[in-house]
């Protein structure tokens, strides 16, 4: 246990607290508050005394609403309550999955750059991480078909790059999963942050997909701990048993709030982030090699010095970023989150433009 | 994962739902609702938008309030914020501990009868369970001093027996922990349910104790997921890191409710359960070999046939109990919970008196 390093994201968080008026572009959650209708239902659930244990797998009402969401929004026709487990956030879902599936020495294909929890948790459970660049072409996977992977995992849209994987890429990954016997895990926590309508749930075509859906990012419910797993019956059964012996159930009142969240129109929030996505790209494209993000609320771009050096220079301008090395094997990228107020974002772009000239 | 059987407690729960007007004495949580002042603070935290991640270890305000509680109520003078981790309930605390501490083949001393999660989770992490009868005498431990235990664990007061361990027993366990290098884990989730003022926190004398404190049972917050771990700095650091890579943090608004819970006077509730404890004992002592419970809200007593047979006979009288075999190696005990309304309890005692004559 003493081997896992504390996350540099948390370090950025601490750093930001030490600066008087920081330009904090390190935060991995929306800057807007949880919408008031969700708060109202959360409040009502508390007042109605829904403070007892729920069923281990989650309240039937939420599972039913999620099944409907999967069928209509994600086009996953086989989605059904029995295939859904409600968990205490995506991290909890990942822990259940990795704990149940990964054995010592298992090779796990992780699309890179990756959510930093994937390799950290996989290694903790004895897995060996095999990275695959997110820019891969379907034919690149041919040479991998003779290997044996326990699982394939990616976040789509991606944290940290904002990349939305193409249908062709996703189909190639599903093919690879099928031919190597790997579990295909599609982490779709950022699915609503899809600015060019490119997002596609591979679960709609490949029934063995394990689809992860989170409430934290979309509705700013990170502290309320809620996510769901959609998978084959036998996987859900095993994970439910493990949940019974670990966190028991997701927080009761949060589950009721989740049902309301699904009814909430987030399009104005998404539109705001789309404009911020464009603003970041337009502000930086002449200063850094940068690609326009397709989704999530991050931009991941190359800097002219090492990430750690760049981060230190940024701090001198009160700007907080996250070093890229925690998301991939490269050491000259940084992650910027545009989930913030316009004022902060504008100050950040100005600081980044100045920083590019210092190198 | 497929090896862990679903808990018979859950089966009792399902069974109770199938009977029209069940006498349900199987439930492991208070029958009273979460007190209104706690609900109010929970509601206010939601309305104030406290829906984001908290620090991994918990909000400082709760840790500070817990440190004060440990110092004044439990007489643990060394209690300090840095030694406290806030978790998503006791089950989550156990999972963090066992995952971090237990390696394949480690021998773990478990006071028996035990909370069924202990052996189930210990075995999952590769531990070997060595049971020790709760009626042990201090001198019985002498012969164990040459063994090597990874940990010693008990719930005090006990689920399922309601036994409150004596100071002498606790001191003997602390001595054994010290001489064998074992971690001593004192699960005190039922501490307030202490009817004869016998409860004693061994952490007040043995500084290496890992003390677990839960909010679920005392305030009927089982679904809100909140507990704390008090332990040495290095243990807390390791567990905090593991929490960061699993559930991330305890639910944010629940943590605020926890502070209010600590200020809540529960004495009227405890007095009610004390009367129920007496009533159960007085009603059954001429029919079954039974001991008066010292704490928690359970009675654990021997029945004249196997527990499974007895449970089936009880169901015919609409009475739901939990079989003893899940808590110990014996197969002729049952667990009764008196955390219920007087009417239900009276019906239950009548049914049990009748059942004793059928054997």
Short description:
Helices cover 38% and strands 14% of the residues of chain A.
Using brief descriptors, characterize the structure shown.
homodimer; 359 residues; alpha/beta; Aspartate Aminotransferase, domain 1; Aspartate Aminotransferase, domain 2; 2 domains; seven-stranded mixed beta sheet; three-stranded antiparallel beta sheet; 11 helices; 14% strand; disordered N terminus; aminotransferase (chains A, B)
Q: How many beta strands in the DSSP annotation of chain A?
A: 12
CA(first)-CA(last) distance of chain A = 39 Å
CATH topology of the largest domain in chain A: Aspartate Aminotransferase, domain 2
Q: Identify the CATH architecture of the largest domain in chain A.
A: 3-Layer(aba) Sandwich
- What kind of oligomer do you see? homodimer
Discrete helix count of chain A: 11
Rg of chain A is 20 Å
What is the average per-residue confidence, as pLDDT of chain A, rounded to a whole number? 94
Large-scale geometry of chain A: globular
Beta-strand portion of chain A reads: 5-15%
Helix-strand blueprint:
Two copies of one chain form a homodimer.
Chain A: H1 8-18, E1 23-24, H2 36-47, H3 60-72, E2 84-87, H4 90-101, E3 107-112, H5 117-124, E4 128-133, E5 151-155, H6 167-180, E6 183-187, E7 210-214, E8 227-230, H7 233-244, H8 252-262, H9 267-284, E9 298-302, H10 307-316, E10 319-320, E11 322-323, E12 333-337, H11 342-358
Parallel strand pairs in A: 1-10, 3-4, 3-5, 5-6, 6-7
Antiparallel strand pairs in A: 2-8, 7-8, 9-12, 11-12
């Amino acid at each position: 246990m003493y081997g896992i390093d504390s996350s540099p994201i948390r370090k950025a968080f601490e750093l930001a607290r030490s600066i008087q008026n920081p330009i904090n572009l390190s935060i991995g959650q929306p800057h807007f508050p949880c919408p008031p209708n969700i708060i109202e239902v959360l409040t009502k659930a508390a007042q109605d005394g829904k403070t007892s244990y729920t069923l281990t797998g989650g309240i039937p009402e939420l599972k039913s609403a999620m099944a409907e969401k999967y069928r209509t929004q994600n086009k996953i026709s086989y989605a059904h309550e029995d295939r859904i487990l409600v968990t205490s956030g995506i991290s909890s879902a990942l822990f259940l999955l990795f704990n149940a599936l990964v054995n010592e020495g298992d090779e796990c294909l992780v699309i890179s750059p990756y959510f930093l929890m994937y390799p950290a948790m996989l290694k903790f459970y004895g897995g060996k991480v095999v990275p695959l660049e997110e820019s891969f072409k379907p034919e690149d996977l041919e040479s991998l078909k003779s290997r044996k992977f326990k699982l394939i995992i990616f976040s789509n849209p991606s944290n940290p790059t904002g990349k939305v994987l193409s249908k062709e890429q996703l189909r190639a990954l599903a093919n690879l999963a099928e031919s190597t016997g790997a579990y295909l895990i599609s982490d779709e926590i950022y699915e609503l942050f899809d600015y060019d309508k490119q997002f596609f749930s591979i679960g709609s075509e490949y029934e063995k997909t394990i689809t992860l859906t989170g409430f934290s990012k979309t509705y700013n419910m990170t502290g309320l701990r809620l996510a769901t797993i959609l998978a084959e019956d036998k996987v859900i059964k095993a994970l439910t048993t493990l949940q019974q012996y670990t966190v028991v159930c997701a927080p009761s009142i949060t589950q009721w709030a989740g049902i309301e969240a699904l009814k909430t129109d987030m399009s104005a929030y998404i539109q705001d982030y789309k404009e911020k996505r464009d603003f970041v790209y337009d502000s930086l494209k002449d200063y850094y090699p940068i690609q326009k993000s397709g989704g999530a609320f991050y931009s991941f771009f190359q800097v002219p010095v090492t990430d750690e050096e760049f981060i230190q220079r940024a701090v001198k301008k009160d700007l907080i970023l996250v070093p890229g090395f925690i998301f991939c094997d490269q050491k000259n990228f940084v992650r910027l989150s545009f989930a913030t107020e316009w004022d902060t974002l504008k100050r950040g772009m100005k600081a980044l433009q100045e920083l590019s000239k210092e190198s």
